[in-house]
Amino acid sequence: MVETEAPAPRPMLRGEHVWLRPVEPADFVEDSQFAGDSEVGHFLGAKSPMSRAAAERMAGEILTQVGQTSFPYAICLLGEQRSIGTIFLRGVDKVSGSGVVGIFIGDRRYLGKGYGTDALNALLDFGFGEVRLERIELEVFDYNLRAIRSYQKAGFQTDATLRRSRFHRGEHHDVHLMSILRDDWLALPRKRSWELTEP
Q: Which residues, in sequence order, are CB contacts of 174 under 8 Å at separation 6+?
């Protein structure tokens, strides 16, 4: 009998085009380089470039909270291991059922292609479908229109505007507080991560 090669594992946390793998310290270091890019850093709200040492320190702090109040993941294209960005739930309060989402696509070649929304959908499926959250929120700067559209596509609604609460590049900007509730997520007409079985 001829043995065939074992099939590749199917990702647990995935969207239509990307999957989420556990983040590694090296991912933070790589992301820190992209955060120093003038365009990427601008939308991220970075004030200055981050050193490798600072990125390694940040990775250590975040990784100590994994599975407790923090769930960070690298965003990868389906079939690949290389990270194109990072997405995470942080500040997870399992009593109140709330958490905060953050997302970062570092390589400009992958911006504006829907990968961020796809990754966000996968993270929402995890937050509502596995962690049993009731509310997931985020903050976004008023000038980041591409991100705002992405969040709206994923089902987020604006709760409040924090007027002139962010100073960046010589100007004050509004920050929008957006959220999605479990009921909003349940009403979304799309497949969930666990329903996507094709490679």
A: 141, 142, 161, 162, 163, 164, 165, 166
Contact (CB, 8 A) for 23 and 74: yes
Distance separating alpha carbons of residues 64 and 98, to the nearest angstrom:
20
For 166-183, how does the pLDDT look when each residue is reduced to its tens digit (9 = 90+)?
888 889 999 999 999 999
Three-state SS at 64: coil
Report the run of H or E that residue 173 belongs to, with start and end. strand 171-181
Instruction: Domain count for the chain, please give it.
Output: 1
CATH number of the structural domain spanning residue 120: 3.40.630.30
Distance CA 83, CA 192 (A): 22
Can you give the pLDDT at residue 32?
64
Write out the residue range of the structural domain in which residue 70 sits.
18-191
Q: Is 11 a member of any domain?
A: no
Residue type, 58: M
Whole-angstrom distance, CA of residue 19 vs CA of residue 14: 4
At 26-52, the pLDDT tens digits run: 877 676 666 656 666 556 666 666 666
The per-residue pLDDT for range 137-163, each reduced to its tens digit, is: 999 999 899 999 999 999 999 999 999
Cα 122 to its chain centre, rounded Å, is 9
pTM (2 d.p.) = 0.87
In a domain, 99, yes or no: yes
